[in-house]
Design a protein that fits this description.
- With 147 residues, the chain is an alpha/beta fold.
- Helices cover 34% and strands 29% of the residues.
- It is built from 3 helices and 6 strands; from the N terminus they run αβββαβαββ.
- The protein has a 6-stranded mixed beta sheet.
- Helix 2 links the parallel strand 3 and strand 4.
- Helix 2 runs parallel beside helix 3.
- It is globular, with a radius of gyration of 15 Å.
- The protein starts with a helix and ends in a 5-residue tail after the last strand.
Amino acid sequence: MLFELDVIDAVCQDLEERGYVIINRKKEIKHSGKDVIAKKTNSNKDLRLFIEAIGETSSDSTSKRYGKPFDRSQIKVHISELLFATAETLSMPKLDEYIYKTAIAIPDNKDHREFINKIKPFLDSLDIAVFYVKGERVSEIISNREV
């Protein structure tokens, strides 16, 4: 079972291997703000990548759901929450010196993929990438432009 922080760790490792610098990342269960903010310098402008993540079980050891997989209803709610947080990022004021990109990071399993496939055209229309995480690694990145 992947906890949210496991997903974040895998994504940060993948980004660092691809030349990103992690500016900020969630390191504890109780955390406000974006789960991951990373940057990458290219020839013209720096890319700023904002990522929201979820796990496949509760990270709170006092929760009744701790260690148990989320059911389909919970997964749908969690993906909805990720999309709201991503919409907030897309709505924030932007600085001209950066290129902005948003993404969500989720466990790579049947239920998460099924829900994402249903809204893929929407994600593509807003240029929201999806990082799928399996085990300790990013297994796939879905994006309509390079991340």
